[in-house]
Amino acid sequence: MSFTRIPGNDDIFVGGVCALSRTSELRKAGITHIVSVFKSDSRTIKDCEGFKHLTIEVDDLENENILESFEKSGNWIESALKERGKVFVHCAMGRSRSVTIILAYLLRKSPQLSVQEALSVLRDSYPLAEPNSGFMAQLELYREMQCTPDINMHPKYQRWLFEQDCSSALAAGVPPEVVRFRDEESNEDDDRNSKDFIELRCRKSTSAYFIQHTPKSKLENLKEEAVSNSTFDSSYPKGLPSTCTTHFINPISWMKPFLDQGLLMGRLECPNQKCSAQVGRYSWQGQRCSCGTWVCPSFSLQKSRCDQVNVVK
């Protein structure tokens, strides 16, 4: 058989597009609904005649946004199952895109599962399951957001979109058109009202630059937190040496006049107009820290030009 039933109580099947050429087998298995997770052509549409059909038009690329389709596909599959239907989810090869859509459904149905656990469950009956690394990262993000039905308003999703915009812009050799400023975002983890936090201030004018969003008890190393919580690359190494001469931070709103110049790199000056001293640099193409770590894009403040202040609540 060219399609496989996934484990569990739900009548969901997975496979490749070749199964559509054997509609008699689909009907014999009781399939009533088909989800095509690729850019369908006229032949695919014809093959799906007589079935309820949903198309999710995505390519099997690591930077493709399949996350935005999770709510639509999940609702559609749930509705089909409530009608006592049987759902066949396919892509071209039945390995990556279709599997990703099914995993997203499993995560929203069983939130206690990790992405890897859900994948292991699926592989028990379908060892071909192999989502690309970009789709796996999006599934992890989806789970981090608790499979919210309104991902468009979630800060983590908005930051992820910003990362994608940055990557596309840098590939074209230009800065991104829209910059997301961390201090203008809502932050469900922001508990500065009740916990101690760390602030960076201009050494010359004492203007505040950046406020940590993590309780001090979790903040043994300012450099480690600032880099590891970067909205641009979660793979930065942790526990960086104390010899680092630079604080790397997220873009914040006082940088806007400098970033609006449309340059790939430039200087950052103290926002206090009575000071205006250069305190750091930004580079959309990245820069290397004194410890050897490459940070891209980078927004850096020189430690020699700012003070680290412990604010106690």
Task: Lay out the secondary structure.
Layout: E1 3-5, E2 12-16, H1 23-28, E3 33-36, H2 42-47, E4 52-55, H3 70-82, E5 87-91, H4 97-109, H5 115-125, H6 133-144, H7 155-171, E6 197-202, E7 208-211, H8 222-228, E8 246-248, H9 256-259, E9 265-269, E10 278-283, E11 287-288, E12 294-295, E13 298-302, E14 306-311
Parallel strand pairs: 2-5, 3-4, 3-5
Antiparallel strand pairs: 1-2, 6-7, 6-14, 8-13, 9-10, 10-13, 11-12
Helix pairs in contact: 3-4, 4-5, 4-6
Structural class: alpha+beta
By CATH's scheme, which homologous superfamily of the largest domain applies? Answer: Protein tyrosine phosphatase superfamily
Integer-rounded radius of gyration:
24 Å
What is the helix content?
Answer: 25-40%
User: Would you count the extended β strands for me?
Assistant: 14
Report how far apart the termini are.
Answer: 65 Å
Instruction: Please report which band the strand proportion falls in: under 5%, 5-15%, 15-25%, 25-35%, 35-45% or over 45%.
Output: 15-25%
Please count the helical segments.
9
Per CATH, the architecture of the largest domain is: Alpha-Beta Complex
CATH class label of the largest domain:
Alpha Beta
Low-confidence stretches: 210-241
What is CATH's topology name of the largest domain? Protein-Tyrosine Phosphatase, Chain A
- Quick one: overall form? elongated
In which order are the strands of the major sheet placed? Answer: 1-2-5-3-4
Q: Tell me the count of domains.
A: 2
Sequence of secondary-structure elements:
EEHEHEHEHHHHEEHEHEEEEEE
User: What is the average of the pLDDT values?
Assistant: 82
